[in-house]
Amino acid sequence: MKQDNPLTKPIHFNEVLEAAVADPSRRQILRGGLGLSALSFLGLAGCGGGGGGGTSVANALNFTATPLNATYDGVSVASGYQTQVLYKLGDPINTTTPAYSNLGTEPSASFDFRAGDHHDGMYFFGLGANGKWDEDVSDRGILCINHEAITPLFLHPNGPTLSSGTGTDFNTYLNNTRNTATSAEEVQKEFRLHGVSIIEVVKVNGKYEVNKASAFNRRITTLTPMVINGPLKGHASQVTKYSPTGNEARGTLNNCASGYTPWGTYLTCEENWANYFRKTDLTGRTANEIASESRYGLSGSNAATGREGWSHVGAGDDYARWDLNIKGANAAADFRNEANTFGFNVEIDPFSPTSTPRKRTAMGRFNHEGAWVGPVTVGKPVVFYMGCDAEDEYIYKFVSTANWSASDINGGLAAGDKYLDSGKLYVAKYNSNFTGEWLDLTAVSTGTQAVGSLTFTFGNSSDAYLNTRLTADKVGATQMDRPEWGAVNPRNGEVYVTLTKSDSKRPVLEVDAANPRSHTDKTGTGQGRSTAGNPNGHIIRWREGSSNPAALTFEWDIYVFGAETDDIGKANVNLSGLTAENFLSAPDGLWFSHKTGILYIQTDDSAFLTEADGGSTCMLLAAIPGTVGDGNTVDVVNSVSGVTKTVTTKVGKVGQLKRLLTGPIGSEITGITESYDGKTLFINIQHPGESTTLANLAAPDSSWPYANSTTPDGNPPTSTTAKTNRPRSATIVLTRIDGGVVGTDFTLY
Ligand code: FEO
Ligand code: CA
Ligand code: CA
Ligand code: CA
After folding, report:
1. Torsion angle defined by CA atoms of residues 330, 335, 341 and 346, in that order, rounded to the nearest 10 degrees
2. 318: left (phi over 0), alpha (psi -120 to 50) or beta
3. Mind listing the pLDDT tens digit for each residue in 642-682?
4. Which terminus of the chain is more solvent-facing, meaning fewer CB atoms within 10 Å of its CB: N or C?
């Protein structure tokens, strides 16, 4: 049915909410996203009296955009807003672990009870007095936070100890050989700095703090025992020395974005896991194994050492497991299959601190960015949207076999077994006429797929789950410009996914309607940019057929194209007409507010900072987007070095879009969740000062959060405190100074 457009005719969310509170099943539908019944219900909600009734919401965002920031080493927010640092790298999560020195001197074992590094995806679960998930509770919650990776320089007294190579900063430390005499303790620490934090947070005197005495507090790391669930449980590919049955695995790795389930558990998603493994010898591998490993990047530039050089540092399986070379008599005698146990979504029950996390193999194996639940309706399947974060990779959808029952709320991992271990796995194809199709990966059972000069032969029922990327290649899915986060509009069920950028795999002749830009960027080489591609990224969105999340067809358009300050007037680049209040590049994190329906966009673009004509640190923006198809059809003329291709695409109306926050030097803004009352956003500041070198460790590029950690009046100060402390990734809390709902004073719907 046709809906009122909330941009011009607001519907009263409070009326909807009051009715929903009287009907718990409907309330669940509302907060998990809108099912068909809820859509109908919203359509019936009138517009008379109270709230923003009758008022145009043309200026619904209640702040003035904060400016671009290239020099201030702190978090800057719009006037009327403030931030507070909540949970930093190394912070203790119990009452007996001492405060963090930030000098790299703590013993590795203490990191079983300390915050990890590189905070990323997260979710706030309201914590009821009964110890269960309660969406009516905002002042007490369990915050689940991913720790994606590490900045090794800051974690040890003088950076990692190497036996070869000349590591000086984050990038040069990669792929080096660790000094075996001194590195075991360093590496044990690094094992624990990855993974997930589960911490109870409580509002005390109006401010959230970590409850260090909470029994819910827990660290999940690369060492934590896990169970393999779903179609790959007990499969030959999962057999390792750690688990000769193939039923278990050890740890989770490179946990990027995340998701929550409608039954109240956390999904943490394994992204760039392939980099961590050493692999130098193909002897004994089958043709399919070699093709598969090539497709997943296991034979790439990190293969000689593994990204952090963890293998062979010390004696024992803790280190040996990062080396994939065949060494034993069979798969149960070595770690040849260890990489097959990564690349999954992992379900964690934050309300059960002793529960064993489960790898949900039915959701496929790739560079999982995150998992975002679609509109939930009683009696219908539960749907999750997922992206594979690499250039030319795909967008996926999982549709559960089981139909949703509200009685499974707070059902923990047993509910997860019901909904996540069996279902259909689809990949998206975006057609040039702005329709799309979900292609069934589980239907592929025969044929071959080329990987460069290699060939993969289908025929194993596990192919869609273990070799999801190859299966998606086979069915002809659309290669996208690096899928990062997704988010589902609670107003109408439309799905948004960031396509952060493509530096090398989108030459002019390979543009298509869904990835329509390839142009030269002025910043050129040496700053993460190629001479052509889609360096600033875009956000695609779609509406499922009949607004049914399990539908096999959809309609799509592009909500917004990133653009920089020097792109003003370039009609084929600044396709969304961005201006000073919303220039953005490389969109990454996305979040639709449960409360207000505002779309928040986070960016990850270190290259923007170095723009000669006015760059910026990474940022958070707020938007009130319209709907799929609300804009125009546009011919994009791409022309680089005499090669030209014009492609027709559909560009949405941007509507209101304003920058709310900018980050410290060298940081990425990633990870976002909110309290259910809409008064608090939790935001992660990842890897501040990441380009610091060993030579300037005593005067790093960033000392955040030590210096100028907040600017309550909104604008960057003109001077900064001297930088001497090592920077720390951290979770911050963003609130309005007057305590109101973040982003808007209107009832948007
Ligand atoms: Fe970990 Fe896709 O960024
Ligand atoms: Ca530029
Ligand atoms: Ca990301
Ligand atoms: Ca990123």
Report:
1. 140
2. alpha
3. 999 999 999 999 999 999 999 999 999 999 999 999 999 99
4. N
Helix (H) or strand (E) holding 635: strand 632-640
Residue with tokens 């790439």: 300
CA 71 to each of CA 170, 614, 615: distance values in angstroms, whole numbers, following the listed order: 21, 10, 9
Q: How far is the CA of 9 from the centre of ligand 3 (A)?
A: 35
Tens-digit pLDDT profile for residues 52-106? 333 345 679 999 999 999 888 889 999 999 999 999 999 999 999 999 999 999 9
Q: For ligand 1, which residues put their CB under 6 angstroms from it?
A: 148, 256, 271, 369, 389, 484
> What is the spatial distance between Cα 488 and Cα 596, in angstroms, rounded to a whole number?
13
DSSP 102: S
Which residues touch 395 (CB under 8 Å, ≥6 apart)?
385, 386, 387, 388, 427, 428, 478, 480, 483, 486, 497
Residue for token pair 């119990």: 94
Gap from CA of 181 to ligand 1 centroid (Å):
33
CA 271 / ligand 1 centre spacing (Å): 7
Nearest atom in ligand 1 to the alpha carbon of residue 484 is 2
Ion ligand 2 residue ranges (Cβ < 5 Å): 521-522, 564, 566
Q: Which atom of ligand 1 is nearest to the CA of 670?
A: 3
Rg of the chain (C-alpha set): 24
Tokens read off for 598: 């505002």
Residue nearest to atom 1 of ligand 1 (CA): 256
Using DSSP, state whether 5 is helix, strand or coil.
Answer: coil
CB-based contact 525:499 (threshold 8 Å): no
Residue 745 CB neighbour total at 10 angstroms:
15
Q: How many CB atoms lie within 10 A of CB 72?
A: 22
- The tokens describing 312, both together, are 């062979």
* Spatial contact of 437 and 447, defined as CB atoms under 8 Å apart: no
- Report yes or no: 742 and 674 within 8 Å, Cβ to Cβ: yes
What phi and psi values does residue 211 have, to the nearest 5 degrees? -85, 95
Per-residue DSSP letter, 176: P
Length of the chain: 749
Closest residue by Cα to residue 297 from 281, 276, 318: 276
pTM of model > 0.85:
yes
The bridge status of strand 423-430 relative to strand 435-440 is antiparallel
| Region of residue 698 (phi > 0: left; psi between -120 and 50: alpha; otherwise: beta) | alpha
332 C-alpha to ligand 1 centroid (Å): 32
For residue range 556-592, what is the model confidence (pLDDT) as tens digits?
Answer: 999 999 999 888 899 999 999 999 999 999 999 999 9
Peptide bond into 705 cis (omega under 30): yes
CA 557 to centroid of chain Cα atoms: 22
Q: Which residue has the higher pLDDT, 144 or 716?
A: 144
Integer angstrom CA distances of residue 602 from 68, 347, 485, 538, 589: 14, 24, 10, 12, 5
- For 697-721, the pLDDT digits (tens) are 999 999 998 865 444 344 444 445 6
In the structure encoding, which two tokens stand for residue 483, read together? 């899928």
Q: What is the pLDDT of residues 190-239, one digit of tens each?
A: 999 999 999 999 999 999 999 999 999 999 999 999 999 999 999 999 99
Centre of ligand 3 to C-alpha 667, Å, is: 13
Q: Find the helix packing angle between 287-295 and 468-475, rounded to 10°.
A: 90
Separation in Å, CA 606 to CA 70, 482, 652, 739: 11, 16, 27, 32
State the pairing for strand pair 225-229/358-360: parallel
